[in-house]
Design brief:
113 residues; mainly alpha; 3 helices; 62% helix
């Protein structure tokens, strides 16, 4: 939209705006919600994360998936930042709290023959 002539075209500008909104807003929060849900459910079964973090993850994942309603219902737009910014905190917490190796996995050693 910064190119000359594009911003003056009244048919193209709203289309580009909605496209940027779809990719940047819902296009971020819905896949992030799926990532959070997948990791938290797996971590809950393996008991790899504390229970409080798994509950926080699932709430965050549901908000991420419900943010897709912002494309149809403008009042649901508040769910996008409620997913986006806490998800960065989630990435940091999950990265530090996940164990380095699994409990039932023996460390591998490399042997030279």
């Amino acid at each position: 939209m910064t190119c000359p002539g594009i911003a003056q075209d009244t048919g193209v500008t709203p289309s580009l705006y909605y496209l940027a909104f779809a990719f940047g807003g819902v296009g971020f929060s819905v896949p992030m919600g799926l990532l959070i849900a997948g990791l938290s459910i797996t971590a809950a079964f393996l008991k790899a994360l504390p229970k409080w973090l798994v509950v926080f993850d699932l709430i965050l994942a549901v908000m991420g998936e419900l943010s897709s309603l912002a494309l149809l219902i403008p009042q649901a737009i508040f769910l996008i930042p409620l997913t986006r910014f806490p998800s960065f905190i989630w990435l940091i917490l999950a990265g530090f709290m996940l164990p380095k190796i699994r409990q039932n996995q023996a460390p591998t050693t490399t042997s030279q023959a």
